[in-house]
Amino acid sequence: MDFEYSTEQRMLADSLARLVADNWTLARRRAREGGLDPAAWNALAELGVLGLTIDPEHGGFGEAPASLLPVHLELGRGLVDEPVIASGVMSATALRASGNAEAAARWLPAIASGAAILALAYQEPGRRYAVAPETCALSGLVLDGSKHLVWHGAEAHAWIVSARDTADGEPVLLVVPADAPGVAVSDMSTLDRSRCARIDFSRTRLAPDQVLARGEAARAALALALEWGTAALCAHAAGAIARLLDITVDYLKTRKQFGQPLAAFQALQHRMAEMVVAREMALSMAYVAAAALAEPDARTRRRMIAAAKIEAGQAGRCVSQLAVQLHGGMGMTDELEVGDFFKRLTVVELLFGDTAEQLGIMEETAAMDEAATMDATTTMEETT
């Protein structure tokens, strides 16, 4: 995959950088407390950010997965907390992958234009990172159960909800409008000032056209949505890491001790070198995650994205901790935005599965590959 920016991508990245600089300053981010800014959201839609990978037939631009990289790098540099990944990446991917043409025609143009925000509701209380639905159940067309940690859930006009069909135990994906009867939403702030929600469904009656996919189609669409979301999140993390490094280097060049800048001290130069290495590793693995989205083999794709997520978490922890330390006592205060980057990178490590969860994915896919190789060898020997 060629990651050299095209002319169009460079123009988009430059325009987005200017938009982020104007709308996501420290003061404006904190004043919003993670809430949606309609003007900024519309500006993102007008730039084409929300419909970037949505096909032109549904009002998007039909760009390749690699286009996620320049966009989410810039959004990460500005700590943009709007539901771009939740709606424009994950929900759009789930709709596209479900194979439900009617639902795609209804929702994808609205997502691309910013008129509708969708969020993916798949996690259930007490089940940590488990993806397969269990306690949230669909009986006929009646939905009961709870979803929690729904990223930007309270801002959404509808949710893509995973549930277990009580008739056959198979998973089902549903599009549930936020104004559906029997729905209760509890909005809450997270560590990094973004928002998540708990959604409770009590005898929520749905229409037949709100069933997005069933069985294997539902399972595959949900998995692909999480993979696309994780890849975009890795790029977001790489952008945040790069910006935090820039802030730290500027501080060390400005702050003086014993008559010279802190950047002149060799011990601190070593710490900066560690941060540079971590930044380059995070960026490299963000490339890997974006490349994985075009990988046809599902196990290889999962393993590549898991590896990228692990590196994003480790690099984010390294850079954010060193940034706080190198700012001295001020790094622990709310006066500087260093803490904002620290909190965002901490949350990034936990979203969609922490390091332990990603290591489990890598072990699982490696075991599956080994089993497939052994089966192929056995078959070949028997044939011979």
From TrEMBL:
Ranges of residues in domain Acyl-CoA dehydrogenase/oxidase C-terminal: 225-364
Coiled coil start-end: none
Cofactor needs: FAD
Pfam family of the protein (one): Acyl-CoA_dh_1
Keywords: FAD, Flavoprotein, Oxidoreductase
Family: Belongs to the acyl-CoA dehydrogenase family.
Protein name as annotated: Acyl-CoA dehydrogenase
Gene source species: Achromobacter aloeverae
